[in-house]
Amino acid sequence: MTPLAKIISFMAMSISFLTRPEGRIAYELHGNGDRLVVCVPGMGDLRQTYRHLVPLLVGRGNRVATMDLRGHGDSDTTFTSYDDVALGSDILALIGELGGPALVVGNSMGAGAAVWAAAEDPDRISGLALLGPFVRDPAGGRLQTLLFRLAMLKPWGPAAFLGYYPKWVPGTKPEGYDEHLARIRENLKRPGHWRAFARTTRTSHAPAEARMDDVAAPAVVVMGADDIDWKDPAAEADWIGQRLGAEVVMVPGVGHYPQAQAPDVVTDAVIRLGDGATRA
Fold first, then answer.
1. Per-residue pLDDT at 277
2. 3-state DSSP helix/strand/coil percent for the chain, to nearest 5?
3. Number of helices (H), then strands (E), in the chain
């Protein structure tokens, strides 16, 4: 099967739902390998951000779940909490539903939630692959936070976010980029979804940072060298690597979404992580 055919096959998978106390979390399950990998997107993005990574991981003998965040994609917008802790609890619940432990691949906010989850329930998480990770609040203070929240207000909020998105994907765009961006645009128009996204932007990553020293699982950090969310992406990756005792992989020419722009690099990192966790 060609790479494009694998992606099309992945996109056609049926959706399942994990029932949580205040709503449902949408997810898809691919492959039938012994090792479970759970892929968690970042704020504003969808489970399809892993469309290039999933076929590679399945081809290496893994069972891979991709999930939507609360109020994103096909998940419900009925929740009262949209922060790292809430997402972390959803990750743990999904692993419990599918039969863990699992390697967790988390992008951006999904990485912070994965760190919290690994500290909260070490038995369910055997390893962490953190992609373009937010595991602490960036420097910039309250003014920068306020300006960001103002930019995300309606009626200009959706246009501001969609206008900013291409900056997270510098250089050569991955296959299916335009279709993925269109899917995000349409998703934000669904009832309740922009409100849920706006609430997600008001969260803090402090709970994840506070639990970093409690993480026992092996970890790898994959950071795009051109990730504009950080003044010095390499320095941020090194800081996380030191705190977690993690391998650090810097990817030249890649932005905030290594899973889309460098899926081969991420796949190799996840496989190394999983093999190391199995040996341990």
1. 59
2. 50, 20, 35
3. 12, 8
Query: Nearest-5° angle of CA 79, CA 83, CA 87?
Result: 75
pLDDT at 148 over 90: no
For residue 247, the SS3 value is strand
Instruction: State how many domains the chain has.
Output: 1
Answer whether residue 143 shows pLDDT above 50. Answer: no
Res. 207 pLDDT band, cuts 50 70 90:
very high
Instruction: Check residue 12 and report its DSSP letter.
Output: T
Note whether 66 and 50 are within 8 A (CB): yes
Helices 157-164, 193-201: inter-axial angle, 10-degree rounding: 70
CATH of the domain at 137: 3.40.50.1820
Say which residues have a Cβ less than 8 Å from residue 139's Cβ, sequence separation at least 6.
Answer: 231
Task: Enumerate long-range contacts of 177-183, CB under 8 Å, 24 or more apart.
Answer: 177/260, 180/46, 180/48, 180/49, 180/51, 180/260, 183/46, 183/48
| Average of per-residue pLDDT across 169-187 | 96
Quote the tokens at residue 189.
Answer: 């128009």
- Parent domain of 191: 3-279
- pLDDT at residue 147 is higher than 50: yes
Beta bridge partners of 53: none
